[in-house]
What does this fold into?
Amino acid sequence: MLLCGYCGEDLPPGTKSVEGEKTYHEECINLNIPRGQEALDTFRNISTQSNVLCMAIHVNYIHGLAKENREQNKRKKEKRAIKTKELLKNVTALRNSNSGHLLIHFVGREKEDTFTGAFDEFADDKLQTLIQDGSLFTDVYTKRFLSDYAIDLDKLQKKQHGVLEETSGKLEKKIKEHQSQQEQLAKLDLKAKETLGEELFEEIRKILRQKLVETSQELERLKNIKSKVEKKLSVCVDKDTLKDTHQYKDFLVLYVEGGFYLTTSDSKTKIALDERIISPSDPTLIKFLKNRTQFKSVHPSGHTLEDLTKLHESRSVQFKGYFKGKETDEKIVGFMFDDHKLLEYVGAFTKNTEGGTYFLGIVEKEHFFNGSHYKSKFVEIQRVPISSQQNVAAKIKEGVSKGVLICDYDGNEANDELVDVFFIPSGDSGKHDADEKAPEHFIIQIHVKPVSGIVFYDKQGPQAYRVEGDTITTFSVKEWFHAVIENSVVRWEIYV
Ligand SMILES: [Zn+2]
It folds into this structure.
């Protein structure tokens, strides 16, 4: 069933759509979208932030429904996932564009409803994943209904005036303190070492300098607070516009603070733990790219059945079981790419000194050794039927080279053959067809080379967004590398 491009809810059956274009509810076209635009215009008039974005979510997704069957529940999950993606895209863009507001239009919300917990439950965990610079959730996000702005603004301004007065007082005191510390230091230098002796002189000097540094830092901090509050107060809000906001009880305003460095929504690359592979955090990714580790080339060889039985899964070894019967070579290669995430492992293994190895046809099975009371695991060898080794190896290599994006540490695209494929005979099934040549059975071993650079499991590369004008744009691969390496996306306030 088609979904509405605005509220995300199902469109009535039989709705016509044009390929590549969004389709909307009649009600959304005539009522909701214009209302969203009005709210956006109103908010832009009272906001001190240049970045204001808007999105809509139907209340059906964030609240439990009075009547719900299993099928509806499943559909609801899918629809929520689409809106989650949209939310994260908007918020990432604001994190990467110094800060801003996201207006969220709750389509279908009752006027009397003042509960916000359902949205918090829907959004908070996801919003928290976008904070990777160590900031507190409460410092990065604030939420308030657009209709509350008028009431709150008066109170807010009063409070801000108070803060401004207090900060100005503190600042004055600190400036005096700073001056007197500078004078003390100058005096000390004049009196020189003779009177005090060298050791004592150096010690006093050290203490004074330390104090001076501390005072300067405090001074900077206070100046920052003062300029922030002044900026907020300098915006004159027209009273009529404020009154306008009263009617928008169905718009939540989410404030998003800018990040200290680039926020990537999906890095499209993995790193290996010993137990599994995960997406790296932003700081890990930044550190990896800045370290520019140069890997030595490795010369892999095929394993024997004998050494496989002693091998276990680790940061550089991944086993995948084969539980199908006779299949075509194409299908078997397909399982690895589609069901068993081969490309994600390739990306993770290229970051190991020795690379890594991915096996199809081995499983770790639970086992009690000699009647022991605890569960452990042993390796079970399986049989993967292969008709043509040459064909399978070529298909794997082709799939890898078509599926990944390889870049050096500066973001230049590179071409490299990442994998070697080996086939380890794993025994005969015992069934021989008289006419047909039975396929032989193997374990497929794919060795991944280390790469001095980064390998993404998506040709498009990493996903990161920013706000340009009123719209969201995607970082190109080159821009992403630049932003990560040069720290070009940072909150300007920390430098003022
Ligand atoms: Zn709609």
Q: What stands out?
A: Residues 4 and 24 are 5 Å apart (CA to CA). The first strand starts at residue 52 and ends at 58.
